[in-house]
Amino acid sequence: MTQLAGRPAPPSEFDLFSDAYLRDPASAFVRARKEAPVFWNEALGTWVVTRRADIDAVLMDWETWSCEANGGRLPVPDEYADVVPPELMAEIMIGMDPPKHTAARKVAQRGFLKPVIEALAPEIEARAHRILDGFAHLGAAELMETYCLELTTQTLMALLGLSAEDEPMMRQLRDDHFRVLASGREPMPEPERSEVWARYVAAQLRLRQLAQERRDGDGGDIISLMAMAKNREGNDALSVERIAMHLTEFAAAGTDTTAQAMANAILFLSDAPEQRAEAQADPTLWARVFEETVRRRPSAPFASRVATHDAEIAGVTIPEGDIVWLALASANTDSAAVVDPMRFDIHRDGLDDHDHYAFTKGRHTCLGAPLGRTQGAIGLRVAYERLPGLRAVPDQKQDFLPLAMLPIRRSLQVTWTPSDAKAPESKEH
């Protein structure tokens, strides 16, 4: 990494591993946007970009700002390099540039088209009710694992056409993939490194097996759609190795990010009871609740890129080969573009137009955004219909997997009044 004399430094209190950052990532950038909109973070060895206009420019210029940083620099242990070679890690969906990214996305997005997601909506709602049936009478629960992640995992299993025997693997894979992604900047100590990679490689082999088995099938699940896809020459569009890697990305992004957003929405609504009451009275507002939640606190606070040549951002020269982290949480709360940006407001202008960066922007806009939006809104609506007084326990201890790029909430303690809990409506679920 190039060392530059006099490179801009962050504000003295800036710390991506602090409790304050984990509690509210957006708050960490308020001072930086004013004093050092582009700065060097010594702890991570990356540049950090904080202003919305600058982030927008980087996201829209893939030729200058490559996605190679997301996969091409991940350290693969020598003992697994023959199974998961570094060049395969470089071909994760968020680690490719056109034209390779364009071809892979075209195949994968078939499983996330609007008709597919709309057809799945009744099943998402039915699963949400079934999950809540198990504990609605209790009056208190840890909701992250028991509901948010449970719902998103069950939905993913349905989308992939996987059976119960593969569910433990997929649940673990979501955490392991995020940890592997973070390892390029936040190395794993032993024995964690060996444990994570052993599970990760075993999951890759299982997913490759499933993709191969579905090559000649006729299923409508995402694995089958990717496995059966052909290129113009009539050959398989994607190798089983790449299919498995993309499925790994779906296991992480398709479960954890939406679950994180649902948990964050509950936290925001616990501090905004009047807006919670409005959404409970008007179910059409739940989509706006979800949208405002991911604007105010995106599940992934950063996107990363690498400079393909010396380039300038806000008067700062970024040398070729250096990595930049784009602070999406900062872009979403930049007062130069957003009115009263730190306020949680479900009536905010622009929400219907998705005027924020929670799912990034441009060629790498999140493939699963339609699923996340549908599932998040349904999951929240059903939870508050069944548990009208649902609220987060005040001042609970923070419980995160403390990764700067992807701080993952592991638990959320909530309460409600058992006598107010409602049975589902008469329609079958």
Automatic annotation (TrEMBL):
The record ties this protein, via InterPro entries, to: Cyt_P450, Cyt_P450_B, Cyt_P450_sf
Concerning Pfam families, the annotation shows: p450 (PF00067)
Q: Which Gene3D superfamilies match?
A: Cytochrome P450
Species, as recorded: Streptomyces ochraceiscleroticus
Q: Belongs to which family?
A: Belongs to the cytochrome P450 family.
Q: What is this protein called?
A: Cytochrome P450
Please give the SUPFAM superfamilies that the UniProt record associates with this protein.
Cytochrome P450
